[in-house]
Design brief:
The complex is a heterodimer of chains A (about 800) and B (about 350).
Chain A (H helix, E strand, L loop, with lengths): L1 E3 L14 H10 L3 E7 H4 L1 E13 L7 E6 L6 E5 L9 E11 L3 E3 L2 E3 L2 E3 L1 E3 L17 E2 L9 H4 L5 E6 L10 H12 L12 E5 L5 E4 L7 E8 L8 H9 L7 H13 L4 E4 L7 E6 L5 E3 L5 E3 L5 E4 L4 E4 L3 E2 L12 E7 L2 H11 L4 H6 L6 H16 L3 E4 L2 E4 L7 E3 L2 H8 L5 H10 L3 E2 L4 E3 L10 H12 L20 H15 L3 E2 L5 E2 L3 H4 L24 E2 L4 H13 L5 E11 L8 E11 L4 H14 L6 E4 L6 E11 L2 E9 L1 H6 L6 E7 H4 L18 E10 L4 H12 L3 E10 L8 E10 L8 H19 L2 E2 L2
Parallel strand pairs in A: 13-24, 14-17, 29-32
Antiparallel strand pairs in A: 1-12, 2-12, 3-4, 3-6, 4-5, 6-7, 6-10, 6-11, 8-9, 15-23, 15-24, 15-25, 16-23, 17-20, 18-19, 20-21, 21-22, 26-28, 27-28, 30-31, 32-33, 33-37, 34-35, 35-36, 36-37, 38-40, 38-41, 39-40
Helix pairs in contact in A: 5-6, 6-9, 10-12, 11-12, 19-20
Chain B lengths: L1 H18 L3 H12 L4 H7 L8 H38 L18 H15 L3 E2 L5 E3 H4 L24 E3 L5 H9 L4 E10 L11 E11 L4 H16 L5 E8 L2 E10 L16 E10 L1 H6 L8 E8 H9 L6 H4 L2 H4 L3
Parallel strand pairs in B: 1-4
Antiparallel strand pairs in B: 2-3, 4-5, 5-9, 6-7, 7-8, 8-9
Helix pairs in contact in B: 1-4, 2-4, 5-10
Classes of the chains: A alpha+beta (about 800), B alpha+beta (about 350).
């Protein structure tokens, strides 16, 4: 909402209020000032000029060379492409070394070889219109040549831009802001008088209004004005409209816009002679009803929308935009003004459905005060009467019974307790009265009709304290009961996971929770995979962000891709994120905490496996088993394993299938693990019990064997564990060899096995016996042959 | 005669020792003089030819000579050892200005690091950390927060919908409702989490971002307590000199409501590029929990009151590190992540 500061003078004395204090005080009383702009600050060295002579440009068809008198000794030569330049035109000249809004600097230059000493300006270049103008601004012939343009066009105006919160539609108006200003600065607000002569003729004899359903339209007021001459509106009105960002059109339309700005009540004007049957009907639209609006666009309406119609057809979408069929044109002589209150919800939905959010609908949808409609109507008629129109007597006013004003009790103790303050009761009353609340002697507060946002004592407390001063609220720490705060076990384990993984060299990443359904193809997920059963966003930003992810692998791959494409030689990343799994019969999906790890660079499967094992170990998870997984199409069939703990699968780990890597344009091996963090949590143990340091020495034996290449070492280890008995302390794989010496499809595997007994030094025989048992089992069960 | 021989041996030995330059030479020296067949030993062996009177005198002298040679020998040995140690150490000299071998450590995401700091501050003030789902019911995200259907304020939060009842939460405030439904006062929580709004991506907007919700409910909680709490928080985060400015604002689920600015930590409030010349930086929204919201959650607003606040995590991180583009947080370029 924009407010030219001088407009406030219509309602109060603003002496001594400068822009700086205005910005500060209004912001602190709840009307946040976004910025204050003054065109004159930005426009320098721009003056009124007159085009004396126009010649063709020697080298350009679309340019002309003008001699412009700016009151100096010699005229300035200015090249322009403006189609509306003519000899004798009074124009706006930005001279050499001048500035225009937006930091534009104008200096002497050559245009296609011809010297140009400045520029002639259009309205948008001067910043007084936001839309691009077709040509330069032509001033009236009495404009004094050489005068500063800011002085001539009265551009020296502080325009304040407010951020108005949705609960205060009453402040979407100059009067609303003037009332706030008055309360903030302790000044008196006076509403302008709107009396004007009415003709003998009665409006009711020419026009009638029928509201079919008051829930759609609680109030509809109308007035008829004759002898209207369509013409430009007066300069002062045009100036204010422009300052507020509206484009002047003609006197009647400008009046409706002006009153909307001033009162916050949208208005509409009809060419009364185009209304059939002299009747206005407010009703729900019929499904499929067609209407062309003022912007010349056809619309198909439905029964959820409100229309204004005459006896034959609809003539406007209520509260959004009027119809083209009754538009005020230059031939219009009789105008019917409409000021009504429509259902905010209905207008909001209709505007959304029709894709037509107008200034009017933006106001209506916040819920307007019906009492304001008649005030706005009188203001519009007063303005049109001043411009020569004859207002017929009698306002047509169709409405349901006015709402009883809300009454609350002023409980100063409750309010002070709530705020933690000590504001005197008299002060509270004074503030409330300055905001047009009535406070009766028994403490009853009567809430004004335009304050639909006020409901309880908390709202009253806010009204009081925002005027009294938020800065006067003391800062006091709580004196309430002690609470023991802290993190839950889950939160602690999440923190710990991040600590472990960063110490293992992984960087934490964060990616979007929604993703692209196409990514399932990129990672080779089959058509019937449950992963494809996703939660879909019905209004996504784009298809690429339209589903809630059911796996973290694609977003992890995206991050690796980003880094790979930027030539980062190696990467190790993790994300502790959420997967969203729809569940039949459940409104909300299961949100599953998931850990993904990804790496590329000088790494292989065992680097990632080592990291995963270290993580699980440090989290206190029992030793995991890794089982070859050949079926998951995202992964390399020979380099993938599922991870299981206590016979429950908790994740997957492997090299990304080269075809998938190619889809991500990564030309190197990528390793990814995805772990179900929710499943890991209950497996984590933070209990640590000390075990005594060994008192007796250990004995190690090395063993090397040749066996089929297809046998996994896990099978060897299982045999070692099963046969070594109690004295086994540990074993370690230290060599794997494939080559001619061991034969085709064979490998040599070597382990170092360590034995120890807690209560004695082991003797050779005892260890040898166990070793023999192991060797025998390896031979019989795996066909291994011991290597010398 | 023997005495003279002894003197000669001693002088010769000591002279020879002075010229020895290696451990091997030292050993042959020892054998030559003190060994079983060494010159001193042979002198002692020849003592049989001496008279009984002379014998102890010469014997003593011989022992003195031996001791003198041995002492000198040990001296030489030690100095040789020192010399060789020095040589070895000198040969082992390295260029200590060469770079250290890097141990590759990863890093937490900058948003995690900032969040950890915020959590620590509030845990220190007795807060617990609550959580709620990202995919939320309309009821929790809007209705129970005093935002009934068709409330105009819903438009200011462009919402992603799954269906009419289910949406991606636009704020962490629904956790307030879920927590109050489950817990009785005293309540003192923060609830960090992801939120979603259908904003197009640019330097200051992201469709996914993070908030930290705070909620305190108990008997006698006042707006002055809210101010005191947030002042403590802001000073811990931004430094003891930080000043706070509470501006009236509107949120449907708090009343009175406020937006909070802090004095710009860069310029101290004079106005600079960080605060866009205003001297103040908006950091959070807050207010007293609306009595309607308390009632919806089964808490009697006549008995209890409370306050709530919501902090934008990205904003805190942007300001703390001087980052100028929010997109960097979700792009995850390692060269970016490695800076924090």
């Amino acid at each position: 909402m924009k407010l030219p500061m001088s407009w406030l003078k219509d309602y109060m004395n603003t002496d001594g209020i400068d822009a700086e204090s205005y910005e500060r005080e209004m912001t602190m009383s709840g009307s946040k000032v976004e910025k204050i702009e003054n065109r004159a600050d930005e426009i320098k060295n721009v003056v009124v000029g007159k085009i004396e002579k126009i010649e063709k440009h020697p080298d350009a068809d679309k340019l002309v060379v003008c001699q412009v008198n700016v009151g100096e000794e010699a005229p300035l030569q200015i090249v322009t492409g403006a189609p509306n330049a003519f000899e004798g035109a009074y124009v706006v000249v930005a001279k050499h070394k001048s500035t225009l809004p937006g930091g534009v600097k104008i200096t002497k230059s050559k245009l296609r070889g011809v010297e140009s000493a400045g520029m002639m300006c259009s309205t948008d270049e001067l910043g007084i219109s936001e839309t691009r103008a077709d040509g330069i601004l032509i001033l009236p012939d009495d404009a004094p040549i050489g005068e500063d343009i800011c002085k001539y066009l009265k551009l020296d105006e502080n325009v304040v831009e407010f951020e108005i919160t949705s609960n205060r539609p009453d402040c979407m108006s100059v009067i609303g802001l003037a009332k706030e200003t008055a309360a903030t600065f302790g000044r008196k607000f006076t509403e302008p008088g709107n009396s004007y002569p009415e003709s003998e003729k009665k409006a009711a004899d020419y026009v009638s209004v029928e509201v079919k359903d008051f829930s759609l339209c609680p109030r509809y007021t109308a007035r008829l004005v004759e002898n209207v001459k369509i013409a430009p509106s007066p300069d002062w009105m045009q100036k204010r409209l422009r300052e507020c960002g509206l484009r002047p059109i003609n006197n009647v339309v400008d009046i409706t816009n002006y009153v909307m700005l001033e009162y916050g009540q949208p208005m509409h004007s009809y060419d009364f002679d185009q209304i059939k049957g002299g009747k206005i009907i407010v009703r729900a639209a019929e499904d499929g009803e067609l209407l062309e609006t003022l912007d010349d666009k056809p619309h198909k309406l439905d029964s959820t929308m409100i229309v204004i119609s005459d006896t034959e057809r609809s003539i406007g979408v209520a509260g959004i935009m009027g119809g083209a069929n009754t538009e005020v044109s230059e031939n219009t002589t009789r105008v019917l003004f409409e000021a009504a209150t429509f259902s905010g919800v209905k207008i909001r939905r209709a505007a959304k459905k029709l894709g037509m959010r107008t200034d009017a609908s933006a106001l209506f949808e916040k819920g307007l005060d019906p009492e304001n409609a008649s005030k706005a109507m009188e203001r519009a008629c007063k303005l049109l009467s001043d411009m020569g129109g004859t207002v017929l007597s009698g306002m047509i006013d169709v409405r349901c019974a006015p709402k009883e004003p809300l009454k609350l009790k002023l409980d100063d103790r409750q309010i002070n307790n709530f705020l933690g303050m000590d504001i005197p009761r008299e002060e509270m009353v004074k503030i409330l009265e300055s905001l047009e609340f009535k406070v009766e002697s028994d403490g009853t507060i009567i809430v004004p009709s335009f304050r639909g946002d006020i409901e309880t004592y908390a709202d009253i407390a806010e009204e009081i304290v925002r005027i009294y001063g938020y800065d006067k609220i003391p800062t006091v720490l709580m004196n309430s009961r002690v609470t023991t705060g802290g993190k839950s076990r889950k939160q602690q384990l999440e923190d710990k996971t991040k600590d472990i993984l960063t110490s293992l060299g992984f960087f934490e990443i964060m990616t979007y929770s929604f993703t692209d359904p196409k990514l399932f193809d990129d990672i080779n997920v089959p058509a019937d995979s449950p992963l494809r059963n996703t939660l879909k966003i019905i209004n996504p930003l784009g298809e690429e962000n339209s589903i809630m992810r059911t796996t973290l692998i694609p977003t992890t791959l995206e991050v690796l891709k980003t880094n790979y494409s930027r030539r980062i030689p190696s990467a190790a990343v993790f994300e502790l994120g959420t997967r969203y799994i729809p569940v039949e019969g459940q409104q909300l999906p299961d949100e599953i905490g998931t850990l993904s790890l990804g790496m590329y660079g000088d790494v292989d499967f065992y680097d990632l496996k080592g990291a995963v094992c270290q993580l699980l170990k440090r989290l206190g998870v029992p030793r995991p088993a890794f089982m070859p997984e050949k079926q998951d199409p995202t992964f390399h069939p020979g380099r993938c394993a599922v991870i299981a703990v206590k016979n429950k699968i908790i994740g997957i780990l492997g090299q990304i299938h080269p075809r998938v890597a190619k889809n991500y344009k990564i030309n190197t091996e990528i390793y990814i693990a995805e772990l179900d963090f929710g499943a890991i949590l209950p497996l984590c143990s933070s209990e640590i019990t000390y075990s005594q340091l060994p008192k007796f020495p250990s004995t190690s034996r090395d063993i090397a064997m040749v066996l089929d290449d297809s046998i996994n070492v896990a099978d060897i280890e299982k045999i070692i564990e099963e046969n070594a008995g109690k004295i086994l302390e540990s074993y370690k794989l230290f060599d794997v060899y494939r080559g001619e010496q061991v034969g085709e499809n064979k490998k040599s595997v070597a382990y170092s096995i360590t034995f120890r007994a807690a209560d004695r030094t082991l003797v050779d025989d005892e260890v040898s016996e166990v070793m023999n048992k192991i060797v025998k089992a390896l031979e019989t069960k795996l066909g291994a042959s011991l290597r010398a | 005669m023997i005495k003279e021989t002894l003197e000669k041996i001693k002088n010769q030995a000591i002279e020879e020792l002075g010229e020895i330059g290696s451990v091997e030479a030292l050993e042959s020296f020892r054998v030559k003089y003190l060994g079983k067949k060494g010159s001193l030993t042979s002198v002692l062996k020849s003592m049989g030819s001496l008279s009984p009177e002379e014998r102890p005198i010469v014997g003593q002298r011989a022992n003195e000579v031996r001791a003198a040679i041995e002492e000198k020998l040990e001296e030489t040995r030690a100095s040789l050892a020192q010399k060789f140690e020095n040589m070895k150490l000198a040969s082992e000299t390295i260029d200590v200005t060469m770079p250290g071998r890097e141990v590759s450590l990863g890093k937490k995401h900058p948003l995690t690091t900032v969040l950890d700091d915020l959590k620590d501050i509030f845990i220190g003030m007795g807060y617990s950390i609550a959580e709620g789902p990202d995919v939320e019911l309309d009821y929790y995200n809007f209705e129970a927060l005093n935002l009934p259907p068709d409330h105009p304020a819903r438009d200011t939060q462009d919402t992603f919908y799954i269906n009419d009842n289910v949406l991606l939460r636009t704020q962490t405030s629904p956790v307030q409702i879920r927590y109050m439904e489950q817990h009785k006062p005293p309540i003192r929580i923060i609830a960090p989490g992801r939120v979603f709004r259908s904003d197009s991506v640019d330097a200051t907007h992201s469709p996914v971002f993070h908030q930290i919700e705070g909620l305190v409910v108990d008997k006698g909680i006042t707006m002055a307590n809210l101010k005191g709490t947030l002042e403590t928080f802001a000073r811990k985060l931004y430094g003891e000199d930080t000043r706070l400015r509470f501006r009236p604002h509107h949120f449907p689920f708090t009343e009175p409501s406020a937006e909070v600015d802090i004095s710009c930590f860069n310029c101290g409030g004079k106005g600079c590029s960080v605060c866009k010349g205003e001297g103040w930086i908006e950091i959070l929204g807050c207010g007293m929990v609306h009595p309607k919201v308390l009632k919806i959650c089964g808490i009697d607003p006549d008995e209890y009151s409370g306050f709530a606040f919501g902090i934008g995590l990205e904003r805190v991180a942007l300001f703390r590190y001087g980052i100028d583009d929010m997109r960097l947080f979700f792009e995850n370029d390692l060269r970016f992540l490695n800076q924090f």
